[in-house]
Amino acid sequence: MKFKWVAGAAMLASSAVVMAQDQQALYLEGLAVTCAACHGIDGRVHAGPGVPALAGKPAQELVRQMRDFKSGTSPATVMQQISKGYSDAQIEQIARYFSSQTP
Ligand code: HEC
Prior knowledge:
Blueprint: H1 2-39, H2 59-71, H3 79-83, H4 88-99
Helix pairs in contact: 1-4, 2-4
The structure holds heme C.
């Protein structure tokens, strides 16, 4: 009887971990989908001159570029406005997401 309780508690705990991971993945895709309109699904751009691909670029480089857009140091047509909509923590999460996509 006691064993059943322990096993049940362990199963509950592990499904909570899986749910948290699913939610995290969903949250990240929600952040990245805003970028997909221009940079392509998963950061692989197909058309559109002047819109660089993001997939597979080093996360640190993406973070630096987003921060430079946000602070206005980097010249841009649209990215200065867009980057201002994200916190530094969100920028790091988005950068890791695109960095982990296959170019
Ligand atoms: C409306 C179209 C559009 C959207 C939406 C958009 N971008 Fe951009 N992005 C651009 C363009 C165009 C450039 C080139 C710089 C410029 O002119 O602003 C660029 C440049 C960049 C660069 C520099 C890449 C390089 O190699 O020079 C990064 C990084 C970037 N975008 C990240 C993002 C992220 C992350 C998002 C989503 C939060 C996003 N962009 C959403 C159009 C867009």
